[in-house]
Amino acid sequence: MTPSPDHTASHGPGTAVVLARRIALFALVAVALSPFYFVIFRLMAFGTVPRDDYAPFLLALLGEPGGAMPESPYGYRLLSVLVAAPFYYLLPSLPLTNLPPDLPLPSLRATEALAFVSYLAMILAGFVAFATARTREGLPPATAALAGLLLFVLCWYSQFFALDPLAILVIALLLWLLPRPGWFAAVMLLAPLTNEKIIIVFAVWLSLRCIVSASERQRLGRAWLATLLAGGLYLAMVMLVHLPGNEYQLDTAGYFATIRTNLAAWASGRGLVLNVLPLLVLAGLALLGHRFPGAPGHRRRIVAADLMVIPALVVVALVLTQFFQVGRIVMHAAPLFVGPAATVIAARLGSAREPEAGAAFGLARSSGTAPL
């Protein structure tokens, strides 16, 4: 990959100043979008939607009342839950109207902290997608911002009221770290204790890229090996710790029955909304980025192997989850596609505006008011 040009002059602001500006911008965006946080928090606190409840796990890790260890695979996601620990103590208690009277305060505070982590992760994922599109793919600022916005929107197709946004954030971060194999490996080797879907996405994507192309093996080989090592560590942890629950995931004899049951659920209204719609949205963006060349200077194209990540994740979801999980599982691959898709969308919007500008110019000339 060609290094991106350095647009920073020697007399430009220092690293500390740039970092302070970025933190200030992130804080401003987080405050401006705070109504989304309250939507997430209320959905979780009132139990409006079925979800994986990590509040007892967080309370158990903190030694607070109401704590309980979850079953497999949730109990392995230790780091994802620990991230919420500081917010459990730092955030002010937010009593909501019409809360269930039997909801203990520690559980509410744990839910509040977990909701805050998901909210921040969605915004951070957008920022990281912007950074990747800008510095790794050489996109102009407006197009890179569109990539970040796309990823923020796509996070809402995941289980944003649980830990999915944090996993998507880590996947986006790992994409940014690809040119730095050491840092990539360091973050990837934490994935077994963060979220196994991080490993699955990169194992599928990097395997497809490295198997079909010798040049990709040379470029991405170390990242591929780090991912496979992380996968091996996760499997070893599952075999050694062997938390109870969801035993069907390890029962290979029942995989076909699970697939049939899950496919039958697709025909329902919930199946169409939670499985089919997210799949079509992401597949559409991926095909958009693959079929069209996009703007000049874009350094990463979606190749055919990348497109195969989506059906591969569909198969994983059909085998290892139940009923209405396919859409959110597939959406973990969104960081792979937002940059190229944003490039094409921006190019199309730009080309659509040019005829309009030309028509307006011609009208101005005919009326004698054309600019000099």
Provide tags for this entry.
transmembrane helix, membrane, transmembrane, DUF2029 domain-containing protein
Structure in words:
This protein has 372 residues and is mainly α. It has one domain. Helix content is 66%, strand content 0%. It has helices spanning 15-32, 34-45, 55-62, 78-82, 85-90, 105-136, 141-154, 164-177, 181-188, 196-212, 214-241, 255-265, 269-291, 304-307, 309-320, 326-330, 338-366. The longest helix has 32 residues, at 105-136. The two termini are 43 Å apart. Mean pLDDT is 86; it is low at 1-10 and 354-372.
Secondary-structure topology with pairs:
Elements: H1 15-32, H2 34-45, H3 55-62, H4 78-82, H5 85-90, H6 105-136, H7 141-154, H8 164-177, H9 181-188, H10 196-212, H11 214-241, H12 255-265, H13 269-291, H14 304-307, H15 309-320, H16 326-330, H17 338-366
Helix pairs in contact: 2-6, 3-6, 6-7, 6-8, 7-17, 8-9, 8-10, 9-11, 10-11, 12-15, 13-17
